[in-house]
Amino acid sequence: MKELIKELETVLIQSGNPILNNMDVEVSHKTEQEITNSFLDAKLECCPELLELYKWKSGCDEKDLFDFEDYDKTLRLCHFGNIAAYPISTKMYKEYQQYDAYWFTDECLSPFMFDGIYEDPILINLNPKSKDFKAIYFYSPALLYPDPTKAYDSIESCLETIIQCYKKHIYQIDKDGFLVVNTKAEAELSRKLNPNSEYWLGPCTTW
After folding, report:
1. ∠ at Cα 9 (168, 202), nearest 5°?
2. Which residues contact 169 (CB under 8 A, 6 or more apart)?
């Protein structure tokens, strides 16, 4: 995981993606214990891979997750937006539980990324007993995904897919610092790197 994180940082620097500067909002006081406790407070276990990611970068704040004045002119890490800061992720998990949403409470699916819409999180499976432990899901009823749909087989394959999208110039950063995505090529690559994830076989491939 550490090698993947190092490689991700390298491609972000090489691509000139300015989002890298906004991905560590908890830098002044984050510790391994604080990250772990944040998840335990939500009755979740932060898997070692997610812990390593948050130790590297603690995630983005609400501005880079939700406050989109112009949807097409927003800094993004990847197709799915930006990684939520761990305090935001766990706080929102607890809020979702109040609405008795079964995919959060039963399956330990915790918010992981957002792309401007509070109600449509990208989710990570933090149930160590699940066959899909560490898998990542897309959820958006408005886009015909009324149930969480697996998008990445694991957090590791998620990072590897993002890395390869940058390396193969499927993800490019324009002169203003905004992400430009070749969606057809992204879907083809993602299917290869995530053979157990049905999202890339769905309507997303036509976007």
Report:
1. 50
2. 182
The pLDDT of residue 73 is 76
Distance from C-alpha of 40 to C-alpha of 42, rounded to nearest angstrom:
5
Kindly tell me the sign of the dihedral angle through the C-alpha atoms of 39, 106, 122, 124.
positive
The low-confidence residues of the chain, meaning pLDDT below 70, are: 99-106, 202-207
Residues in the chain: 207
Asked if residue 173 lies in contact with residue 17, where contact means CB atoms within 8 angstroms, the answer is yes
Instruction: Give burial (CB, 10 Å; 0-12/13-18/19+) of 9.
Output: middle
Look-up of token digits 């749909």? 149
If you search the block for the tokens 């766990």, which residue do you land on?
A: 90
The burial class, CB within 10 Å (0-12 / 13-18 / 19+), for 107 is: middle
pLDDT the model gives residue 202: 66
- 125: closest CA among 107, 101, 139? 107
Query: What is d(CA 135, CA 156) in angstroms, rounded to the nearest whole number?
Result: 9
Residue type, 67: D
pTM for the full predicted model = 0.92
What residue has token string 């929102």?
Answer: 92
